[in-house]
Design goal:
Number of helices of chain A: 5
Shape of chain A: elongated
Strand content of chain B: under 5%
Strand order of the largest sheet of chain B: 1-2-3-4
Distance between the termini of chain A: 53 Å
Number of strands of chain A: 8
Largest sheet of chain A: 4 strands, antiparallel
Radius of gyration of chain B: 27 Å
Largest sheet of chain B: 4 strands, antiparallel
Order of helices and strands of chain B: HHHHHEEEEHHHHHHHHHHHHHHHHH
Order of helices and strands of chain A: HHHHEEEEEEEHE
Oligomer: heterodimer
Structural class of chain A: alpha+beta
Strand content of chain A: 15-25%
Strand order of the largest sheet of chain A: 1-8-5-6
Largest interface: A-B, 37 and 75 residues
Distance between the termini of chain B: 32 Å
């Protein structure tokens, strides 16, 4: 019986020490990061959280861990064959292509996947810049998004995705 | 008090406690669940959590793991009344709420109170965010499986997974084996006694040192602090082998759990060490050296009140031992080993007692100043003695040669932030002083110190000189 008693005493000892330990909490808290990770595109954001993700590598890493956990697919960077701008990249089980603009049509982002479900959002992160854009429902298995030059967000999305260092999360 | 957990674990727990602003009781409960100090079954809270999540998945028609994660991380659901307001009217297949909490008819009648649910959500947050979110994807994946099919098998499966998961976390972040070994030794040494005295602590430390373990004297004394606090529980624990007889006592699980809860949460709201850390800023009410002294003298709470000799030993020889192990770690520096081992630098108990008296006098002086700063000079209705005492304290401020005492605005602000801590510290140091006075009556300090120095010097020599010359 003294083994069981010793075990319980050890657990109590550690619990008492832990309950007294004055360890500062990590900021921003996970609730704020989670709210940011699950926000709707274009919705209000907590600027302090955005700043912390930009300025603090530890916070950025925690935020990406949350994003990655709920993403249907994500890729930290593009696996590109050449150094040039990326026109096509894989994100998990999805393929993302950007068709160049033609005379009468803007560039077109095409996302294809074999998954039964389709992502509703794409979030791209390049350096300290983050962009979250809603995706339309798929048409015959492919999501099509026109990168309208009149919409700054769409232009920026195209430009970021063409950079091999850009991380992409499909949510 | 130290030992039994690593920094990661302390940070993981602090994040949950601060984020949800948990009460002291809930912090203590969570700390117990994490270390496993829950009986009769340390996995019970995880079983409860799995059932709670399953019930919530049905109640909220959660579509995926994300919905359950959002519930677990929502600071708006940290309080029982907030949870009751949100789910009090909710109904779903096999799950309903009554005025006390959730009832899960499909889960073999499993139920919990709103307060219990608040705790379980805190536990869910801990598990999700532990290891600095290192396991977040794994855990939210499990939550997702539960949300997809919250049927009768889902909760037991998640309960088992969480149990194994927390056991693995304990293996990685809670080095309990050394503590357990030491408590086994302590129980063996006491041979069933619940009572012990200062010399038992010293003798047990000596025997541990002889076996080559070389724990700090203070560390061993801390084990006795826990043992003493838990002594009331030991009978209950010894009887656990006879589960048949226990089951005859209605409610024994609740009673055991309640006494475990008292053990962890029963400590004063803020430890004296925390109070002292809070006094580091503002006017120099305490110097760094005074704070260090107070930390060392009062750290074995409650022994400075109940076992002053052990508190004196830990301060005097604990410092010598810390110096010895630092020197061995560094491989040199300061006094040589022979001098250290002989305890030539150890402060005598009389010197420490004088220091305690000086600290008591200083804290008393600071308390008077704090009172003078609180009460306006022109306040009416004071007894003449009080008015004189306050005037004297006000005049005394000018005589204090310390940083910040020449700036009235800063001084008042600094004291206003510090005075409740000052009251407690002054009270504790006063109780220590009285305990020393009681000790002196049957054990004069000079001969006690000389006798102790022989014991510590001999023990240090055996333990440390061999290594230095090896």
């Amino acid at each position: 019986m003294s083994d069981e008693a010793a075990r319980l005493l050890a657990e109590i000892h550690a619990a008492r020490a832990l309950a007294r330990a004055a360890t500062p909490a990590t900021r921003p808290g996970v609730a704020a990061l989670w709210a940011h990770a699950t926000r709707d595109p274009g919705g209000p954001v907590d600027l302090a959280t955005v700043r912390a993700i930009r300025a603090d590598p530890g916070t950025a890493r925690r935020y990406r861990a949350l994003l990655a956990s709920q993403a249907m697919a994500h890729a930290p960077f593009a696996v590109a064959a050449s150094d040039g701008p990326v026109a096509s990249r894989r994100i998990g089980a999805f393929t993302l292509e950007i068709l160049a603009a033609t005379e009468d049509a803007p560039p077109l982002l095409i996302l294809r996947g074999s998954e039964a479900r389709s992502p509703r959002l794409i979030e791209v992160i390049l350096g300290d810049e983050t962009l979250r854009v809603a995706l339309p429902p798929p048409i015959e298995g492919a999501i099509l998004l026109a990168l309208d030059p009149a919409v700054p967000e769409a232009v920026r999305l195209g430009a970021m995705l063409r950079d091999p260092a850009c991380a992409a999360f499909l949510l | 008090m130290t030992g039994g957990y690593d920094e990661r674990c302390a940070a993981d727990l602090a994040n949950v406690c601060e984020g949800r602003d948990l009460s002291r009781e809930d912090r203590a409960w969570l700390a117990r669940v994490v270390t496993g100090a829950v009986r009769p079954n340390r996995d019970k809270p995880l079983w409860d959590l799995a059932h709670a999540l399953c019930a919530l998945a049905r109640l909220t028609s959660a579509r995926d793991g994300r919905d359950l994660v959002s519930l677990a991380l929502d600071p708006g659901l940290a309080r029982p009344n907030a949870i009751a307001a949100r789910f009090g009217e909710a109904r779903a297949d096999g799950v309903c709420a009554d005025e006390r909490g959730l009832v899960f008819a499909d889960g073999a009648g499993w139920r919990t109170t709103w307060a219990g649910l608040a705790r379980l959500l805190a536990l869910a947050e801990f598990l999700l965010t532990a290891e600095d979110l290192g396991q977040f994807a794994l855990l939210s994946g499990w939550f997702g499986e539960l949300a997809e099919t919250p049927d009768g098998d889902a909760a037991p499966l998640l309960g088992k997974r969480l149990g194994r998961h927390l056991a693995a976390y304990r293996n990685a972040h809670l080095p309990l084996a050394p503590l357990e070994r030491r408590f086994r030794g302590l129980l063996g040494y006491l041979r069933g006694r619940a009572e012990f005295d200062d010399d038992d602590i010293l003798a047990f430390w000596c025997s541990e040192m002889e076996q080559g373990e070389r724990p700090g004297f203070r560390t061993i004394a801390e084990h006795f602090v826990t043992f003493e606090a838990a002594a009331g529980l030991r009978n209950g624990l010894d009887n656990l082998t006879a589960a048949d007889s226990l089951e005859a006592h209605v409610g024994w699980e609740e009673r055991l759990d309640a006494s475990l809860a008292d053990l962890v949460a029963g400590d004063p709201a803020e430890t004296l060490v925390d109070l002292l850390a809070g006094l580091a800023e503002g006017p120099k009410i305490l110097t760094g050296a005074e704070r260090d002294d107070l930390v060392d003298l009062l750290r074995l709470e409650p022994f400075h009140r109940t076992r002053p000799l052990t508190a004196l030993r830990a301060t005097s020889f604990g410092r010598v031992q810390a110096g010895l192990s630092n020197r061995l770690r560094r491989g040199g520096g300061g006094l040589d080993l022979a001098e250290r081992v002989a305890c030539t630098e150890a402060e005598t108990y009389s010197v420490l007692a004088e220091r305690v008296a000086a600290l008591a006098a200083h804290l008393d002086r600071m308390l008077r100043i704090a009172a003078a700063l609180r009460v306006p000079a022109e306040a009416e209705g004071l007894a003449p003695e009080t008015r004189d005492a306050l005037a004297a304290a006000r005049a005394d401020i000018r005589r204090v040669r310390r940083a910040g005492f020449d700036d009235p605005a800063r001084l008042a602000e600094g004291f206003a932030a510090a005075d409740s801590a000052l009251v407690r510290l002054a009270g504790e140091i006063d109780r220590f002083q009285r305990a020393i006075a009681g000790l002196v009556r049957h054990r004069p300090l000079e001969p006690a110190f000389t006798a102790d120095r022989d014991i510590f010097a001999k023990t240090f020599a055996q333990a440390y000189v061999a290594e230095a010359t090896a």
